[in-house]
């Protein structure tokens, strides 16, 4: 048996993002099932993960089900101590757990006013005082964490579960152009550039229609994370590869990049690669094999 994770929409489910990052960012294999938020199918799928009532929900290899991302983090850390989910240093580990716990229950004003939406970035959302207070609290926590760790882009030295739990906050800062100081923005930039987050967002860009409840009528800007490579979808099945770099399945959909055509097993595999080609190592290895030597 394997780990089986149930998630909601990637573009909007911040708790699902946390659950998935705990696997992908720490190189732990997992089977993922996906359902749309606010759709009866989600409740039908949750019924197969008792007693979970929300996503993410995780079935452990022996069959036990746990929900709540903070519980998932602790259980995975117990089962995979080598993965580095929490810092090895006791003081940093305690600080990381404190940060994750506060993120788990706090920042309610920011959550309510700025729901995560990975498909857009707004020029200005006129954040009210309660949201600004949450941002100031994040700055305090960041300063506290940095005082206990060596210099680097992450909260407590190496990337850990505390960074996972705050990643949806980074997405909100990016998506709503929220005001933070230089140190906080440096961490946001690192979080948006993390390979696992880029893969999640790429999938979130293409895995279903927009959810109208998240729409805001504010002027938009380009997403401030890494810019995607200039690829485009093309017709036909002619490609330099005969099997999908994502799944190994036969080619049915094609994109073009730098004058070469690359094949995929489905529209989803092609389109998530179009959304951010550089986020997918197997695809970039295929591209690298076609580039001329310097």
UniProtKB/TrEMBL annotation:
InterPro entries: Glutathione-S-Trfase_C_sf, Glutathione_S-Trfase_N, Thioredoxin-like_sf. It comes from the Bacteria. Residues 1-84 form the GST N-terminal domain. SUPFAM superfamilies: GST C-terminal domain-like, Thioredoxin-like. Pfam families: GST_N_2. This is Glutathione S-transferase.
């Amino acid at each position: 048996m394997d780990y089986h994770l149930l998630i909601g929409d990637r573009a909007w489910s911040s708790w699902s993002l946390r659950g998935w990052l705990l696997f992908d960012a720490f190189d732990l294999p997992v089977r993922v099932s996906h359902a749309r938020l606010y759709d009866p199918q989600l409740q039908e799928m949750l019924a197969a993960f008792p007693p979970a009532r929300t996503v993410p929900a995780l079935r452990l290899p022996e069959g036990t089900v746990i929900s709540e991302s903070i519980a998932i983090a602790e259980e995975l850390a117990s089962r995979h101590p080598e993965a580095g989910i929490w810092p090895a240093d006791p003081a940093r580990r305690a600080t990381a757990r404190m940060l994750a716990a506060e993120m788990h229950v706090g920042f309610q004003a920011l959550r309510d006013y700025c729901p995560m939406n990975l498909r857009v970035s707004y020029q200005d959302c006129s954040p009210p005082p309660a949201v600004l207070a949450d941002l100031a609290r994040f700055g305090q926590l960041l300063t506290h964490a940095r005082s206990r760790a060596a210099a680097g882009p992450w909260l407590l030295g190496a990337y850990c579960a505390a960074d996972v739990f705050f990643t949806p906050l980074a997405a909100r800062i990016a998506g709503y152009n929220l005001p933070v100081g230089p140190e906080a923005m440096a961490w946001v930039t690192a979080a948006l550039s993390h390979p696992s987050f880029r893969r999640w967002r790429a999938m979130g860009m293409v895995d279903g229609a927009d959810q109208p409840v998240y729409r805001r009528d504010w002027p938009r800007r380009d997403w401030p994370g890494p810019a995607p490579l200039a690829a485009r979808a093309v017709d036909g099945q002619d490609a330099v590869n005969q099997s999908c770099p994502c799944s190994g399945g036969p080619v049915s959909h094609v994109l073009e990049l730098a004058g070469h055509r690359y094949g995929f097993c489905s529209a989803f595999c092609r389109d998530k690669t179009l959304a951010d080609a550089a986020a997918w190592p197997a695809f970039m290895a295929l591209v690298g094999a076609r580039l001329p030597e310097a």
